[in-house]
Structures
1.
Amino acid sequence: MKRIAALAVALLTVSLFASCIGSRSKSATLFPAAELSWPAVQEDYLRGVADGVEDGELVEPAAASLRSSGDKLGAALTARDVSTLRTISWPSMAPWAQRGIEDKLQDGEIGPGVRLSLLEQVANFTTTITKLQGIF
Amino acid sequence: MNHDVNDFEGLLTSAIAETGARMKETPRAIALYMSERALHLSTIAHEPGFEQAVRAERNNVAMRAGIETHAQASAIDFQLLGLIQGALRVAAVALA
């Protein structure tokens, strides 16, 4: 299992190498990392929003707005668009990602240790976005 | 644990040196973080969703490297790139 983990990490890191090569600006150290991490964070975020709807804590218009904000964030990262990024309040969205992680745990899809890794990911993503919003 | 950190730091420093960059404090911080995350991964390999944790820890190292490097206002661009590359190389080695 450990060898599988090592292989997985080795393979996955290649993608970030590729995304970093050629980057020379200061923001290029944060943008690639945030862009790389967003799909995983978004997965938990959308899971949390869906759980909110399922539990009746969110009505669909609000849920749609949250999903739209997520799409906007992802597009801003891809475009390296700090101006758009600054219009998005990720800290207010992050609790939905955390909720998604807790929902995965409750449903038995992840274990408690995996939960910690995912929560750490959300925390690092929040810090990264905050720094990106203050770069320029 | 401490031995692992030293190993990581050595690998990280070597990888950065190969790029021609020089950094003093950040490699140690990244090495320590990588050591912690690798240790965490090694304890949860039996858990459901482990592959999600592997992906998350890869992302965590990448983001932390960016965060730590960004904190060094005096670092030049080439150093930043070297650090990221070095950190990723260590990430690949960490669980081997």
Note: Chain A has one domain: 25-133.
2.
Amino acid sequence: MKFWLGAAIVLVGLAAMTSTLKYEYFFFAGYTVLMFVVLATAWNILGGYAGYVNFGTPAFFGLGAYTAAVLYKATAAPLALQIAAAAAMAGLLGFGAGLLTLRLRGIFFAIATIALTVIMETVFINWRYAGGATGLQLLRPPPTAPFESYIKMLFMVMALSAVAAVAVARYIERSWIGRGLRAIRDSEEAAEASGVPTLRLKLFACTVSGALMGVAGAPMPMYLSFIEPPSTFNLNYAIGALASPIIGGTGTWLGPVIGAVLLSSLQQIVTVTISSEINVLLVGVLLVVFIVAAPDGIIGLYRKIFARR
Amino acid sequence: MGIPLDLLLEAVLFGILLGGFYAAVSMGLSVSFGLLDVPNVAHPAIMVFGSYCTYMVVAWLGLDPILAGVLLMPGFFLLGMAVYRFYYEAFERRGSETGVRGIAFFFGLALIIEVGLILAFGVDQRMVDAPYIGKSLAFSEVRIPMRMLVAFGVAIVLTVALTLYMSKTFTGRAIKAVAQDEPALRLMGANPVRIKQWAFGIATAASALAGSMLIIVGPVEPGMDRVYIGRTFAVVVLAGLGSMTGTVAAGLILGISESIVLMHPGLGASWAPAVSFMLLLLMLGVRPQGLFGR
């Protein structure tokens, strides 16, 4: 109950911002922060709960974005339909990739997901209808009623997606699925021996995680009015999706949210004030420092400090 | 297949040279990941770092790039030992190396190296100069670039040296033993950590030479490690973890298939990067222990 109340307050607060704040750049940057909340939450379902590292975030994200773009080009479908289709396609990709590689040890899954990203990028570079290597220009439709600009509308869409993603992750975490996934992370052999359906659970987690990443990508073509392979399948999405949960704490749904909000806000600030190279360096250094010094992330640090008192 | 015979012949010939080069750049990973089970995703980044070090040595001292690579090897050996020591103290000893943290650590390391290179050198491509770069041998219709031949030669030497080292010397056999059965080695009174540290040093030293070959074969830029993550891991997995002869065979398979796709009129350069990854995915799905798996 407390969770839903909190979610409602956040949503109402953000909606109030869209009608009062005039500064468009805030929503432009805020959209990115919220997008990384979705990506980090999605990553954490497989990476945090089950301990399977996914480097392929851009593959799912990009497939979602391209599904939306192609659907829009072909039928001028509304945004909600684009997002639903993106979720379905990316979920399907997650299921397929999982079926192929989730029987293997974790590192092979990680390598296979990198492979997936490059294959997806190559496919879309060679697909003429979707714009090929040069990309595809998209004309945005006018924003729907209560919103005065398209960016503000996308900002709210992403806020809703973030709340939905966190709710899904929280549900999984608290149900028997989450317990099963945690058992897999601690010892896959022991879990299998105690009757946990490990492969089925991993497949489920990979599918849901992929679908949510697709949702994060779906509004991207409309956000930029443009889509092209190199920036859509950029490894930086993988970095953000992996670093945020590790910095925030991988055990709970709150970790990725804290990590993503802190990290991508910081990234936005650093990119604007210093440079985008320093911004990537910062993520790398933070990632290594947290893995080595604070393996349970900010949440773990917080708990440690309060346990002592 | 829709590809003329003479073009196919040229593609296969070029593919063999390319394959030898791929085998050489994967050799270090074959030791560190294949034998030691360290998820060294930073291997290609260390290699690109080796390319830039070669570039600097060549620019300052005017040496031959291969000689520069050889001179870099002791330094990279120490660097590798330090990286493994850190990895061991931070992860393996606490028993948390498997799963998320170990991989994420090397991923972060790769990122730091990549951005460090961008900050130091910029995103422009860098290349070196040597008498054999830019020339090519012509056999009637087929032309073979000299730089590929040189890289191939170095690759062969590196492979033979590593294979001999692993099978003939005491330390080399100990490295193989640590891969097979670590507790048994410990019971024999040997220190597996010290052996692994040594082996990781050798793997990193091999990356230095691989880096100098990389900059001979073509211009390098800091982001190049991302493509080579796929290529090197594809070769090592295809080979079967830790098999040196397997690494050569897998490198040749990858080189020839990439080169055929590259020269195929219907496919061409835009499909070439996907070849290694397709091979990798297929291998993982069908026969995860690799062609020459243990």
Note: Chain B has a mean pLDDT of 85.
